[in-house]
Amino acid sequence: MTTIKATCPGCGEVDLGTEDILLRIGAVQTANTYGFTCPSCGDFVEKQADDRVVRLLLSGGVVPVPVHVPAEALELHFGPPLTMDDLIDFHQHLMTSEWFEDLKGRTS
Ligand SMILES: [Zn+2]
After folding, report:
1. In the predicted structure, residue 106 carries a pLDDT above the cut 80
2. How far is CA 60 from CA 40, 56, 64, 66, in A?
3. Considering just the CA atoms, what is the radius of gyration of the chain in Å?
4. What is the band of 31 on the pLDDT scale with cuts at 50, 70, 90?
5. What is the pLDDT of residues 67-100, one digit of tens each?
6. Burial of 60 (0-12, 13-18, 19+ CB in 10 A)
7. Considering the entire predicted model, what is its pTM?
8. 3-state secondary structure of 67
9. How far is the centre of ligand 1, averaged over its atoms, from the C-alpha of 36 (Å)?
10. How many whole angstroms from 14 Cα to the centroid of ligand 1?
11. Total Cβ atoms within 10 A of residue 68
Protein backbone atom coordinates (compact mmCIF):
# COMPACT_ATOMS: atom_id res chain seq x y z
CA MET A 1 0.00 0.00 0.00
CA THR A 2 1.28 3.45 -0.93
CA THR A 3 1.71 5.89 1.93
CA ILE A 4 1.34 9.56 1.10
CA LYS A 5 2.72 12.19 3.42
CA ALA A 6 0.66 15.37 3.70
CA THR A 7 0.71 18.33 6.05
CA CYS A 8 -2.14 19.35 8.33
CA PRO A 9 -1.88 23.01 9.42
CA GLY A 10 -2.57 22.01 13.03
CA CYS A 11 -0.81 18.65 13.37
CA GLY A 12 2.08 18.79 10.90
CA GLU A 13 3.01 15.81 8.74
CA VAL A 14 0.53 12.94 8.61
CA ASP A 15 0.53 9.62 6.75
CA LEU A 16 -2.38 8.85 4.43
CA GLY A 17 -3.42 6.06 2.10
CA THR A 18 -4.40 6.73 -1.52
CA GLU A 19 -8.08 6.24 -0.63
CA ASP A 20 -7.83 9.03 1.97
CA ILE A 21 -7.02 11.69 -0.65
CA LEU A 22 -9.71 13.56 -2.56
CA LEU A 23 -8.06 14.84 -5.76
CA ARG A 24 -10.34 17.23 -7.62
CA ILE A 25 -9.44 18.04 -11.22
CA GLY A 26 -11.07 21.23 -12.53
CA ALA A 27 -11.53 22.60 -16.03
CA VAL A 28 -8.41 24.75 -15.59
CA GLN A 29 -5.15 23.94 -13.86
CA THR A 30 -5.67 26.49 -11.06
CA ALA A 31 -8.90 24.74 -10.03
CA ASN A 32 -7.10 21.49 -9.14
CA THR A 33 -7.18 20.71 -5.42
CA TYR A 34 -6.48 17.85 -3.08
CA GLY A 35 -7.94 17.32 0.33
CA PHE A 36 -8.02 14.87 3.18
CA THR A 37 -9.51 14.42 6.61
CA CYS A 38 -6.64 14.68 9.06
CA PRO A 39 -6.30 11.33 10.88
CA SER A 40 -5.09 13.18 13.97
CA CYS A 41 -7.50 16.10 14.51
CA GLY A 42 -10.32 15.20 12.11
CA ASP A 43 -10.24 18.54 10.26
CA PHE A 44 -10.72 18.50 6.50
CA VAL A 45 -7.65 20.04 4.89
CA GLU A 46 -7.83 21.25 1.29
CA LYS A 47 -5.01 22.73 -0.77
CA GLN A 48 -4.38 23.78 -4.33
CA ALA A 49 -2.69 21.04 -6.34
CA ASP A 50 -0.11 22.23 -8.86
CA ASP A 51 1.03 20.03 -11.77
CA ARG A 52 3.76 18.34 -9.74
CA VAL A 53 1.35 17.40 -6.90
CA VAL A 54 -1.27 16.11 -9.36
CA ARG A 55 1.33 13.91 -11.10
CA LEU A 56 2.63 12.65 -7.75
CA LEU A 57 -0.83 11.75 -6.45
CA LEU A 58 -1.85 10.08 -9.72
CA SER A 59 1.34 8.03 -9.81
CA GLY A 60 0.67 7.01 -6.20
CA GLY A 61 -2.69 5.59 -7.26
CA VAL A 62 -5.07 8.35 -6.15
CA VAL A 63 -8.24 8.27 -8.26
CA PRO A 64 -9.05 11.81 -9.49
CA VAL A 65 -12.53 13.31 -9.34
CA PRO A 66 -13.40 15.67 -12.22
CA VAL A 67 -15.06 18.88 -11.05
CA HIS A 68 -17.21 21.03 -13.29
CA VAL A 69 -16.46 24.72 -12.85
CA PRO A 70 -19.10 26.99 -14.40
CA ALA A 71 -17.64 29.20 -17.14
CA GLU A 72 -18.96 32.29 -15.29
CA ALA A 73 -16.61 31.55 -12.40
CA LEU A 74 -13.64 31.89 -14.76
CA GLU A 75 -14.74 35.18 -16.34
CA LEU A 76 -12.79 38.33 -15.60
CA HIS A 77 -14.86 40.96 -13.84
CA PHE A 78 -14.24 44.69 -14.08
CA GLY A 79 -15.75 47.59 -12.18
CA PRO A 80 -17.06 47.86 -8.67
CA PRO A 81 -19.31 45.16 -7.21
CA LEU A 82 -23.08 45.59 -7.43
CA THR A 83 -24.49 47.39 -4.38
CA MET A 84 -27.96 47.36 -2.86
CA ASP A 85 -28.47 50.90 -4.24
CA ASP A 86 -27.62 49.66 -7.76
CA LEU A 87 -30.15 46.87 -7.36
CA ILE A 88 -32.88 49.25 -6.16
CA ASP A 89 -32.12 51.66 -9.05
CA PHE A 90 -32.35 48.78 -11.50
CA HIS A 91 -35.60 47.59 -9.96
CA GLN A 92 -37.09 51.09 -10.24
CA HIS A 93 -35.87 51.34 -13.83
CA LEU A 94 -37.62 48.05 -14.65
CA MET A 95 -40.89 49.58 -13.38
CA THR A 96 -40.85 52.14 -16.19
CA SER A 97 -42.34 51.34 -19.59
CA GLU A 98 -39.22 52.29 -21.56
CA TRP A 99 -36.67 50.25 -19.56
CA PHE A 100 -35.87 47.86 -22.41
CA GLU A 101 -35.28 50.59 -24.97
CA ASP A 102 -33.11 52.51 -22.45
CA LEU A 103 -30.91 49.50 -21.67
CA LYS A 104 -30.66 48.41 -25.33
CA GLY A 105 -28.95 51.65 -26.26
CA ARG A 106 -26.29 51.43 -23.55
CA THR A 107 -22.79 50.19 -24.24
CA SER A 108 -21.75 49.68 -20.59
ZN1 LIG B 1 -4.74 17.72 11.95
Report:
1. no
2. 22, 6, 11, 18
3. 23
4. confident
5. 887 778 778 888 899 999 999 999 999 999 999 9
6. middle
7. 0.61
8. coil
9. 10
10. 8
11. 8
